[in-house]
Amino acid sequence: MKQLLLLITSILIVSSCTEKMDVELDSTYTRLSVEAKITTDFKKHFVKLSESSDVFFNQDAIPVTNATIQVNDGTSNFSFEETSPGYYESSTEFSGIPGKTYFLSILNVDLHHNGKLESYEAQSLMPYPHKVDSIAMNYDDNYRNEGNDNKEYWLLSLYLKDNKENEDYYGFACQINNVLVHDTITEVVIAEDTFFNGEASKGVEVGFFDQEKPDEIIRNNDLITLETYALTEDYLDFVNELQFMDMEQIPLFSGPPANIRTNISNNAIGFFAVYSITRTSTIVKVE
Amino acid sequence: MKHIILTLSCIIMLLGNTNLLSQNRINKIIKTEKKSYPFNDLMILIKSQAGYNYTYPTDSELSQKLIHLGKKEYALDLLIDKISLQLQLKYRIVEKQISFKIIPKKPVTISGYIRDKKTGEDLIGAACYIKELASGTVSNVYGFYSLSIPSGRYTVSYSFLGNKTVELILEIEEDRILTIELENESQQISEVTITGEGVAKNIKRNEMSVIKLPVSTVKKLPALMGEVDLIKAIQMLPGVKPAAEGSTGFSVRGGNPDQNLILLDEAPVYNASHLLGFFSIFNNDAISDLKLYKGDLPASIGGRLSSFLDIRMKNGNSKKFSGNGGIGTISSRLTLEGPIGKNEKTSFILSGRRSYLDLFLRLSSNEDVKDNIVYFYDLNAKVNHKIDDKNRLFVSTYFGKDKFKSSENQLSFGNQTLTLRWNHLFSNKIFSNTTLLWSKYNYELSDSGGANAFKWESNLEDLSVKQDFNYFLNSNNTIKFGGIFTYHKFEPGYAHGVGDQSFISEYKVNDANAFEEALYISNEQKIGSRLNLKYGLRFSMFNNVGKGTIYDFDENYQAVDSTIYKSGKIFNTYTNWEPRAGLLYTLNELSSIKMSYSRTVQYMQLAQNSSGGMPLDVWFPASPNVEPQKSDQYAIGYFRNFKENTIESSVELYYKKMKNTIDFKDFANLLLNKELEGELRFGSTEAYGLEFMTQLNLNRLQGWFGYTYSKTNRTVTGINDGRSYRSPYDVPHDFKAAISYQLTPRTSISANFAYSTGKPITFPTGRAEYQGAFIKIYSDRNSYRLPDYHRMDLALTVKNRKKPNRKWEGEWNFSLYNAYGRKNPWIVNFIQDENDPKIIYAEKTYLFTFVPSVTYNFKF
To answer: CA of B337: how far to CAs of B352, B383, B384, B792, in Å?
Structure first.
């Protein structure tokens, strides 16, 4: 679908131009921004808290400090400690268990610096991980990317069989030599199985390495790892909406912009993401 | 042919008659002293000056009836004509004896067709006007007119804008069939202006909020890339707004683009755009007439809330074979038309257009762009055949397609229509038209790239039968009635993988079937000389018919259950009464007041979430989950003409309330979604506005300018937290002008100018960081506006010197779109700086600054 939009827009691009412009925007009240993740990895999980800002605020977001954070899975309670301003880590290492529902509570937040403390909550089920059969790397010297440029790319092909009984929500990100290169949320590839329910994936491309980006350059014998995420429907929709709003809008296709969803209470922004990870690796042979 | 002979013989008879009479009594000048005389006194005066005796029926009250005179002296023959016309007498002159007889009063009907003399094309909306009765009618969309009057001797004039007026003095004692051919106004600039007369005048027609654009005027206006576009011209009218810059979608009085009924020779057109909306599918060479109803819809029309765009294809020249065409910047056109056979009974037109944008792409240095195929074409064809005086057949068809193709992807979409019509005259008062029509819009999308290979098809089809009657009861009442039955077939989307490599499974959005029916009756009634009423009622019905699947949704719009209905089963029905009314009160010869009310109901709509719209958008029907949209529109207007009706101006005030307005939830998924109805949100819309318009039809200066002030707000549950918000087409101030000026007989210049408030838009007012990206926090829906929009286009048309003995005529058209290079934002994006991810900046995307183009048009 994206490819198609590209094809259609290619003709527009011939006749359209862009230019920076001044826009006066109003301010809105400050909201709590939450980036919280529990995965099936055994590690110290983290929660990041910050303040929302004006659109043209040209600095790092202001961290929200001194909050009290806890995650509960119905049986165990995990408390979090602030290791740097706005960055909270679980005191112990643990891994999320598929089938369990996780509860996040954030207390003692003084967002408006007025001494009034707010609290926030969220919950999410941990999905069961996807089974991946194998992956393969292919080189394409003339791949048309989203920016409609044709460039050198390494592409990662996926082989798995989708479960016909379930509605499955996938996310994909890649590591090169154990370093996650698709680390921002906009680089994560997501898919739901509406159009391939129960099918074999037959090598569909889910990892994209732009050979003009320094951190994505592939060399001989590199260890490539695909992280396959089993997401909840809600989180997939969240990522989808976030990515959609991050894309440039075109009056032909785009509906009106809107605030993206959140699963956190009390008007917070962000998401309490709970997902399973399956890792599959291969070694690249560059001929 | 019989018609023609009849017409000619009538005209010859008339001429002959006059000649005969004139021979008998020339050279006699009668001098008069008073401004009016009783009949007897005047006849005595004639007797004393010319020696003519007279007789008249003695039992009549004729002798004291007044005859009004304007001049001081008259030729005898003219004076006798004048007496006869004023007193409704007929006369014979034998030797020096004039014998008058009273024409017995009985109702008679004159009827026939009004056509263009050069091409034989029907003239739609041409006027037939009787001076003595101050009464008249206009020809219908097939050029037919019928006027019932008391028998008498009358001055009957036939007129049509851009054609010479024909004036006849007729003694009408019996029903007469008069088919009139009006000559085209000569291309030379003359000092005499010939304009619409009588009922053709804006102020005398009982219809408001209606604009008829002559295709000839539209052709003179500047056009984007030289492609003269009827819909772009319509967007220059007050009350009409383009859905997005460059788009052929348009919003009428705050309505949505899918609330416009576009009929091409009575067949609905579901997507009127080419090339993503930058050009419309209407090839102006094949079009004879274009009329936009912004409200005050006739009872014969329904199914859409906001407007009706009536586009009629030419019938084809019935007199001689001819052709015209053009070579433009992005496309070329060729139209051939002419008679089939020798007796003017049958004619045809064939018109084609193809773009050649892909040829330009081939010049591109980018290897991938080079191999892309991007083109569109249109084909219009029509044949009409006069079986006899009372029966006429028309077959017309349109076929158009767009194709985009790259190495891996392909998209094609297009409309096809076929209309079969039979005109039948049951009598000279009852005109009937039977229509059988078929219309289809479909698209196909595919990707051949290995694992992603898929094909996706969508199809919408209409099959209708329609019967319309015009009953010209008498000179005061014209009744129209009829009905329509339509079968709609929706196949919104079917996608499946292609080849063994593909991992894509099958996905099919459930097909839907529906019947849409309507019956209507309306009457236009003249009461006295000043008041004209129009009232009608339309009964419409919509049935959802199996095979169909209906989902049940819970309060969170999640599908919880579904019901499958058997093929052929009517499982849901909506019925509505749609009253329509209009009033015309003539203040004087130059001004009138009009009022109108219309209720309209819409049973199918477009799932279009973007303002511009795209070819993949699908239509979906009303259903148990989706109630039909309804609109009530009230309007009042003052109409005033100037300079012998060469300048028509009007001001209209309207208020519109729409119920069951459909909008879409945030991040709605409208394509390939079985549960589309769960993405819909319902509410209401309120729109009002004030429109000024002045149309110029002077000799050298033609065109129009207009200003609109309007507001449109929606309130929809589940959108903008239920608070009212601006419709995407809410543009309060809107000024437009489209003017052409004939510099010399061979050159004309023209200009478009548009100024409007910026479109409503939703902007971010805050941001929050999330995993390396920003989540934007948005304002209320549409609470910001883009900067004001303005643009001027210029064009120059130069005709080649006409060579004697050569049929070929050529002209060059030079056009400059956005002449002063205004960078009107098409969209504003807020972009994260690549080099410094902490920074977000606003960036506008704009289209089309200084787009020059050259077109060569020819005819032979």
So the answer is: 12, 10, 11, 35
The answer on B134 and B96 residing in a single domain is no
- Calpha distance B733→A70 (Å, rounded): 55
Number of CB atoms found within 10 A of residue B500's CB? 7
Q: What is the mean pLDDT of each run of 10 residues along chain B (860 residues)?
A: 42 39 58 84 84 79 80 82 81 84 84 90 88 86 90 87 83 88 63 44 83 82 83 91 86 93 94 84 89 93 95 91 90 93 90 83 63 86 92 95 84 94 94 96 87 90 96 90 97 90 89 97 92 96 94 93 94 96 92 95 92 85 96 96 87 96 91 92 96 89 93 94 94 94 91 94 93 92 94 92 84 91 90 88 87 90
For the beta carbon of residue B48, count every other beta carbon within 10 angstroms: 10
Please list every residue in chain B whose beta carbon sits closer than 8 Å to the beta carbon of residue A55. Answer: 764-767, 776, 830, 840
| Interatomic CA distance for residues B723 and B717, integer angstroms | 8
B761, B784 contact by CB (below 8 A): yes
User: Interior CA angle at B826 toward B825 and B832, to 5°?
Assistant: 80
Pairwise CB contact (< 8 Å): A195 & B454 = yes
Q: What share of chain B is helix, strand, coil (3-state, %, to 5)?
A: 10, 55, 35
Contacts of A254 in chain B (CB under 8 A): 609-610, 827
Domains and CATH numbers, chain A: 32-125 (2.60.40), 129-260+275-283 (2.60.40)
* Contact between A191 and A151 (Cβ < 8 Å): no
DSSP code of A57? Answer: -
Best mutation target among A164, A202, A260 (most B Cβ atoms within 10 Å) is A202
**Residues forming beta bridges with residue B424, ordered by sequence position:** B391, B432
Residue A132 confidence (pLDDT) above 50: yes
What residue numbers bound the domain in which B121 lies?
107-186+195-200
CA distance B96 to B326: 64
pTM given for the model: 0.88
Q: Is B553 in the same domain as B571? A: yes
Q: B524: Cβ–Cβ under 8 A, 6 or more apart, which residues?
A: B206, B477, B478, B480, B532, B533, B534
Please report the residues numbered 799 through 828 in chain B whose beta carbons come closer than 8 angstroms to any beta carbon of chain A: 823, 825-828
Residue B793 exposed, middle or buried by CB count within 10 Å (0-12, 13-18, 19+): buried
* B593 and B663 both lie in a single domain: yes
